[in-house]
Q: What sequence folds into this?
């Protein structure tokens, strides 16, 4: 796909020659009875409204939500918001080589690096039953889905490759906890961390937007992952029954509370470690992104955020930050 | 203090020549009307009941709860529990050099090492206002209390030097989160981690048992710490008002929810990180210790644990653990 | 097993020549230091304490909880309660043909009749996929467990064959709802009713008392049943994917709320019908039995019942009941 | 009233010659300052917006919400919704014999049949006190209200004659539970079922829409029914005090929980049976209707339903339904 | 009844010649098989255990819980608690003129004074409908019950004449609120205050202890009072319907929340005023008495109080109280 | 400021020559692309929308939210609501002597009278430590803020001088409770009442609208007041430590429950009295004002009020009120 300015960088009166993802398309009528088409487009940075007033022909039947189109037009302003006045719009051609998922938000981390970190950590598992089980679940076909999937629909790591980014954070936090507590079974805990949200690759559809699948709604990612582990463990000769129970328990209990949709709650030290590591990774990511996106220019507070049960602040205290940005825990 | 067998290592018919801490002392009467004294003693490993049937004289007025005594007697058994049949008991002499706190449970970590880790981390703070503030709060007199205090009365890190052990875990978890997220203000977050539970040195009494003080019950460690920061920051020339606000906010919100006694809930990314890091450190420690102490010999499950809302298991899966015990995240 | 008076029918000074189940066995000491053994025995009607003062030999090592023994002795009274003064006790011999489960409470309904009702209803399923799936799960080996299992540990239908009794009630209530509402998919709903608690045959141990298994605690009967359906459906050629989803959804959501340990909540009319039918059957059985067992002689109110959040009354209004006891809905 | 096409069957450009119920009427101004009238009309199938641009005269003072009018006009479309462009509108004449309640949604069951079922069941009550009491409350004047009332404002059985339909379902479920449990007092339970929601005839106004009355809001249908039973029982010679207490208890506790507005919770087996039967009937009806009305064309999921705490699915699995539609529990 | 030392004033070795109320009576056996009787006695100040070892004859059948007896004996001590060693005990004779309720705790306020205050306030009601209604409910027979009743079983004003004491406090608080807010309907609010807990005279039995009646448990004091107002208002010619609705609403909603067993919640300013005034009076009385009774000698904190959700302190700050004890709001 | 008609008294076609407060200002475009300015203005009685179509020049940059302007124009009507058609608007001049706070809603009570009541009550404090502490906090500069502040943003006493009005009500209620209960420490309780909400003078900004400050959001008025008492008490020689603890406890616990943002809950009788008095004053004020403002003309019920969890009624029962309006508790 050719380089193009991101929607977030556009300003009034700019010329549009863009590939964009269709979020909504609706045939409307002006007060005077004339048909026009109202769109919502998006790219990886944000969404924008657009109207096409002339020459709409049969476009509303040819173009559908979730599809990428090529748009020509100009940027306009309406009630303080930018929008596009479309002069023409067409479906993409196959050789233009664009896919809807190019227009979804993406992890800022380097994907190759994340893949390597993940595979290296599998290699380091020292219990052979667990290593074989984890490897069989992350076979190439599944791994491809895994590295693309978001970790959620909208709250945390809700972007392409968010799931692997989130999973890596949890693995590292769990490894740190194992350094503190020799009583923790590191192989078990890390395997549980790797698998805990794998069901999200089935629960969510993330081709052209992030939506729950029917399977996701009727069964849920937790039970989907548990079923998969049960199935794969049966294929491994002499997989220890008790080890399987504990691993499935980690996956089932990783949301920590019944009201968060875990059918059992943590009953082992590994299980509580996984739940709390998940919370830590998820909440910090969610707050960070909510503050970035949620506060309007010139205001220090976001609107009320239901999942945080408060508004959040972006008051700038960056002038009091450490000077040595490279300081880490381990230098 | 001389070496002596721990209570947890005693068996029936052993001879007792021990310094022990008095948890309870009560004058009772047998059915036949004879006076005897019933004690509960403890050392750092556990508690044990004891009875003194003869020669009690005026002992019940001389000896008090919270005092260390020297006990002679023999180990007996009653309804499947060991107890001590006392032949004599006396208060300790000054030159015997024992103190009640020697009989309280203690952190397994090396205290000198923890002190050094903590002081080194203060040194690494790069914001000078914060470094000065933190240093002024951890002046020698306060630091002495801090390194002795438990982190709680009974749930997590509820032992001598538990507070510094817990605080160090949180600092490291927070540093790891700062490695993941450059948006976090590392100095602010780490300073908040250092101070978040400092009020527990005032909230709790930990001389001869772990009890809340009146101040602890009527004000609570959260507000006590906030008042202290307010007071010390005023003494530092030009301490930035906004930085102080954010630091006090970290302390006030670190229990995460109003119903957990935080008067405000996290409204910054640093605040949510501190709350979740605290939860992770506290819960893993609490579950680990509850499982160690709570499951009876030959049973795989503890009794129902109210703070976990379930029973916990100690089913042994250690045969499936990694072989290389030294594996860490960073090798 | 020979006929013997039930514990509930015993009175003071009666001679005991009974097979009884051992609930508890404990070696104790009198104040004067003599060893004796304290038992709790039970049969299907209730439990009773017993003491053996003489000739205990090595009995406390030979006899274990969960075993049936033959007891000789006499009924005594202590603090208003009956207890047994044991003269001798021995393990049962193989040819005496008694099993611990004979001493557990049992459903009052005729088991053969219940088995027939259940199998007839399977036969009436008109969707062949569902009939094959249900039949494959209720193969003889599983059916044997199913017809013996209780529906719970203590609250409702907590007796041998309670699970099939409960399941039959729910099937009939669901069939009635299908008569009211032609929109309901009868085959799907009835199949869901049949399978909804099948996991309890794995979750509970009911050989000599009702206890959760490790699998029951770490995974739970809901997910255990879901895994089984997933596995069996895979073996049936062309089993419709969507039908399987809906059936698993029925099982997963049948406890109606996340906080009742369902990982998903009802999202179809069949699912809400199954949940509410389950509640109706369970609660009426639980209240009826609680009132029967819970109210002391001469008192009209039970103690406070936590699961009902109130005390319950057995005030007798039976003099105002219908005269024709055979009146039913359908005559 | 003459036959006319239902609103739900209309399509663009159809001619309107309809009696319709006025839900809303409002005088508005166009941007150019001209007055027009905006209506919302409804019939038993749904509601539709309508505008009258010309010749409005004094109509906005002559016509009121809750009144039936005769409308002429044509069906138009605006932003994907149909609406009516009115050419004339007038109040109905007395001899046109239409009433607002003809335009409210109605039970699909045959009313005569329901009346007969209900009266027959009263006849079958074998306790004469209860039969007399129930009969005195369902005297002709009250019965007329009862057979017309909806069972609620919007959630379940929220249509004309919904109350009797709902009550009959509960009676049948209760009768089935009495077949299972001989301990239940059938006459008492069925009488309680008959009376439990009678207060809704006072709590609701259902002449031209479903609204709470002042009495309904300040006292509520539960206490209104209890007062009525108290009053009527006093008129019956020797009505047993305890029987009255139990009957009033059934009515007061039938919403099952304090937070659902029952001032006492179920303390008898009959009371818990009535509550759970009520829940079963209400929820199945509510989910069924919500799914019918709530899912848009071409979508499988309704919007989020607050009272269900989820969205609901209408995914079509009807191809896997039983072939013999007449199968019932009892054939 | 003759003067006698209160139980709370007794000390070891004092001679007992007392009328006492029997709270419990139980026939027991010593380890050696001899029968004895164990009692719990009480007077208005507290309760005490007592044992009768000799000459018990048939006493356990002659004497019953709730009866007053004349006891001879001596005060003894057992495990730090006083108890009575009985030499003889007999039922009271009619001419001894003692009644069980003399032995229940009583309000510290002068009853005659409270009666006068209450009747004077009725006289000051200026709305004649309300004055007539209130007067008809407080007819002599009801008033006698009202001035004796406690306001509750154990939490607040749980003593004889506690109900009138509590009601008078609320009336005065409501009158003060009417002084602040002229919008409040004073007559309505004060009438509601007078009647709000009248149902407690029926809900509770307070002859020889404080217990709920069957009517109290199955219907509750709130609905009992509402029914009575409904009944009495019907007897008053032209009693305004709307006024009655508002008065019943005050009674029904006075516990403020559904989960506190009010079937409707406050929907008028008078209703919220009554609820909050009730809370204020109840809580202050409850905390005051709990602190008085709950803290052990030498300790500053009560045990955990469930209804307060905390422990309470009696730390003595009386040295910092005002010197002029007569200071009031109005001097 | 000159006299002018209040917004609430305006009607269509009236001429506007008014000082008004700017709540919102926004530059918009008509459909035809012409710029206009949309305002929301307010005075102490209510708000009104306004549009300026011509001659807008650079006004949108000159005028800002929170400023007072002088407006000329005419009252217009749009969709049943009045709005202003502006002909000119200009900023106020300094000598016009108007301030934004003149346009905020105000207490109906006489401020001088309230100031005198408050100061007189301080004078009556008999404990000198408390009197000195309270006086030092209410020094002139703070008192000025205190007498202007609202007690909240929108729920109760949400108007200029609402805080002192609310505080005085609580003081009087507390004094009345002290008359009932001699155990209460009057000086302590009244001092706590005076200080309990003082932190709101810092938590809120009330210059041109009622908004939370950053300090208010990040720390909250409860801890702000506690810090201030701590600081001021330190300046008073020999201020008794325990007295300070109890006073700070009153402030910290005055919202009564953790979930209402009190970091500790009431543990003394004074603390529970203060919490309940606060509730009584706040709720009655809130309900009264909500009913006044919330019910539309001709309707008897407000919309659903979330903080009351119900709708409220203004049904008129004033014809049944007392005739003697001067009746008070004390005549």
A:
């Amino acid at each position: 796909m050719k380089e193009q300015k991101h929607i977030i960088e556009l300003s009034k009166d700019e010329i549009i020659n863009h590939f964009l993802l269709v979020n909504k398309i609706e045939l409307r009528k002006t007060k005077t009875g004339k048909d026009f088409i109202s769109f919502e487009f998006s790219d990886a940075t944000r969404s924008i409204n657009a109207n096409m007033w002339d020459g709409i022909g049969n476009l509303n039947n040819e173009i559908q939500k979730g599809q990428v189109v090529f748009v020509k037009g100009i940027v306009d302003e309406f009630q303080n918001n930018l929008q596009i006045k479309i002069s023409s719009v067409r479906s993409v051609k196959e050789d233009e080589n664009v896919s809807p998922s190019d227009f979804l938000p993406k992890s800022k981390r380097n994907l190759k690096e994340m893949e390597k970190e993940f595979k290296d950590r599998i290699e380091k598992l020292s219990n052979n039953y667990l290593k074989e089980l984890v490897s069989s679940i992350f076979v190439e076909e599944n791994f491809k889905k895994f590295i693309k999937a978001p970790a959620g629909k909208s709250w945390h790591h809700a972007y392409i490759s968010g799931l692997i980014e989130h999973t890596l954070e949890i693995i590292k936090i769990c490894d740190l906890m194992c350094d503190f507590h020799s009583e923790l079974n590191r192989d078990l805990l890390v395997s549980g961390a790797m698998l805990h949200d794998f069901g999200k690759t089935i629960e969510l559809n993330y081709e052209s937007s992030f939506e729950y699948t029917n399977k996701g709604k009727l069964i849920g990612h937790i039970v989907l992952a548990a079923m998969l582990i049960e199935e794969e463990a049966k294929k491994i000769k002499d997989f220890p029954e008790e080890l399987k129970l504990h691993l499935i328990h980690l996956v089932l209990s990783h949301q920590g509370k019944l009201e968060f949709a875990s059918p059992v709650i943590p009953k082992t030290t590994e299980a509580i470690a996984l739940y709390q590591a998940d919370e830590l990774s998820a909440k910090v990511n969610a707050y960070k992104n909510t503050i970035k996106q949620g506060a309007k220019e010139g205001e220090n507070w976001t609107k009320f955020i239901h999942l945080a049960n408060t508004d959040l602040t972006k008051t700038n205290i960056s002038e009091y930050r450490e000077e040595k940005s490279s300081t880490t825990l381990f230098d």
Notes: Chain D has a mean pLDDT of 90. Chain D touches chain C through 63 residues (CB under 8 Å). The two ends of chain D are 42 Å apart (CA to CA). The CA atoms of residues 222 and 252 of chain D lie 6 Å apart.
